[in-house]
Amino acid sequence: MSDTQEKKNNKKKSATPAKRFNFSLWYLVAVLLALFIAQAYMGGGKSEPLSYSRFKELLNEDAVKRVIITQENIRGEAMIDSAGVSVLTPFEAVRVDDPDLVKQLEEKGIDFEGRFESDWLKGFFFAWVLPLGIIILLWSFLIRRMGGGGGSGGLMSFGKSRAKVYMESATKINFKDVAGIDEAVEELKEVVEFLKQPAKFRALGAQIPKGVMLVGPPGTGKTLLAKAVAGEASVPFFSISGSDFVEMFVGVGAARVRDLFQQAQAKAPCIVFIDELDALGKARGASPWASHDEREQTLNALLVEMDGFESSKGVIIMAATNRPEILDMALMRPGRFDRQVVVDPPNIDGREAILKVHIRGKKISKDVNLRLIAARTPGFVGADLANSINEAALLAARRGKKEIEMPELEEAIDREMTGLERRSRVLTPKTKEKIAYHECGHAIVGAKLPNTDPVHRVSIIPRGTATLGHTLYLPSEEQYLISKQEIIDKIKVALGGRAAEEIIYGEITSGAYSDLQQVTAMARAMVMDYGMSEKLGQVVYRRRGHTPRDNPFQTQDDYYGEDTAQLIDQEVKEIIDRCYTEALQILRGNQDLLRNMAAELLKVEMLEGDKLAEFLGKDRITDYSEHIQTKDAPEPPAESPKEDDDDSVGHNLDKSG
């Protein structure tokens, strides 16, 4: 054996801790119980129990040969008949207060003696050991119930960190498992390189950022990205949620923060990942009425610990949040979370790459076009795409197929966007007709306006919990800014359903409730947020998510006087009224198209593709051909697909009967 091999073996032996015997109070209880049993049942031979009167009879008959008198009983030996033969047999009788017993024994010449037998062991066991054992058992049970089980959940370990530690071999995730967020991956490769080759950076005096903040909407893969960094660097990965620090007792969260950093420094180099940091790091003092001493002390402890440890030790703090605007400014300063990595929803290329990751290990038909699926899912993040693939697999298995095919993927996407089909919901012909005109009104107004998204589908099939019909739009290009005219056209499209009802029936229904919510929100945003009103000027009248510190009773919308509030309401109403009038004009000029399209929709229940193009024109419906042919073509935006649903139709019709 070589010296190197021998040194390795010695290191392994020295690193292996010796097994220790852990003393437990239960061992003492078991020993005392064994002694008690031995004394009670194994101290003497088997004796025959006698009544005191029988003992006196044997004594009068001179059958008793030897007697031992104790405080509680009388033991001895006597000639007792057994099957007609007298046999010397040990006996035991309960002692009775009999002053003549000793005189009678002396007269008979029987050998007797008195003994003092101590029962301290029995008394100690029943008076002390057994009650104490019961109390300890109940105490242990209550502590386990309070702490949620053993380990780190007990009462005496409140100050211990609840972080889950994944070692290098347990992570098993690297950058190959992350797709669609290439820019974020490139940002984090520097962190991986530092953990792998710290000497390269130290030689130049460079310092790696102590904290890396992953910012992005839910489901974009922030936690997966942090695990991939740990997997690439082959270092331990501490994972904990921000809510795990905060408890009902003040000081517990701060103790857990200190314990977490102690564990991390002991296992350096490593990565500490805090998910949902906003649960812990909300801005302090934003609202005097919502202060929380425990949360603020925990945040203070985190700030102090991040200042105290050295990045040269190889401990990288990573955190994820989808609400960076509410975080305390002290967290975001240089020296703490001084680098932000934005994890955006993927574009069409990113969605295609994500789909390729999630189909690993699944049987996919050769006819499946992932590019088409990516084009059909604008606004979907990694979690949405993973759920769609899984839903398609479940549908294929339910239908008895051996592979996942395009119909299952298409239906899975529809379920994700608009909910599950509810064909069992029975609607009257009159109700279906009103829904058909309502949805066709949306589609026709959208097709006749220049600044609207292409129509993908018009359907009167009930979906979800309360949707009786929907018109689905899929944007044809990425959109980061929106103009005033585009907002106005969107308001007109949303009002097209109610306008169609008024033209056809001369009355309106409750089906436009959700549409009115949308148009009111858009019109108020134009006036109060975007400065798009000529009467009120280019002024912002509300600040989102902000409450003034000097007046905690002031709401976030109270940034104007009563006169201004009346002007805002009037301007919002005028915008909506103008848009509704124009939607009526568009539909009155296309009544034949409206009636024909509604009649066809009532027959087939869903219009899309070529059937929809017959009414709206090829250029006004969603076309995927350019996306499928080349990756350089314009892509659908990273915003959610737009849908005009009729949630309130079923709700209000059910109420009215």
Please characterize this protein's 3D structure.
The chain is an alpha/beta fold. The chain has 5 domains: 28-117, Signal recognition particle alu RNA binding heterodimer, srp9/1 (2-Layer Sandwich), CATH 3.30.720; 121-157; 164-342, P-loop containing nucleotide triphosphate hydrolases (Rossmann fold, 3-Layer(aba) Sandwich); 348-418, Helicase, Ruva Protein, domain 3; 429-656, Peptidase M41 (Methane Monooxygenase Hydroxylase, Chain G, domain 1, Up-down Bundle), CATH 1.20.58. Helix content is 48%, strand content 12%. The chain is built from 24 helices and 15 strands. Strand 3 and strand 4 (85-94) form a beta hairpin. It is elongated and about 140 Å long. The model is unreliable at 11-21, 148-156, 545-556, 630-643 and 645-657 (pLDDT under 50).
Quick recap of the structure?
The chain is built from 24 helices and 15 strands. By secondary structure, it is α/β, with parallel strands linked by helices.
| Contiguous uncertain segments of 5+ residues | 11-21, 148-156, 545-556, 630-643, 645-657
What's the gyration radius in Å? Answer: 41 Å
CATH topology of the largest domain: Methane Monooxygenase Hydroxylase, Chain G, domain 1
Strand % is: 5-15%
Characteristics of this structure?
657 residues, alpha/beta, Signal recognition particle alu RNA binding heterodimer, srp9/1, Rossmann fold, 5 domains, 15 strands, elongated, disordered C terminus
